[in-house]
Amino acid sequence: MFGIVCDGAWLWEEYINTLIGDSFYHPMNKEGKGKQYLFTSDKRFVGLIYPDFISKIRLNALLLCQI
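^ thats the sequence. predicted structure below, dont judge the formating
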């Protein structure tokens, strides 16, 4: 069987960014911009993640990630 396999998730993510970009920040993980850490303690940062979208409202910031 011959064919082409394409992953269009990045295209969908960029489209969603055009819709909600005013309210959410879209980290650029390939460029290393917008990284977040799951845990912080004693000036140590552990668990590097790049969420798909981060709420621009810092009070109770919402992180949107793919599972």
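The helical segments are 9-20.
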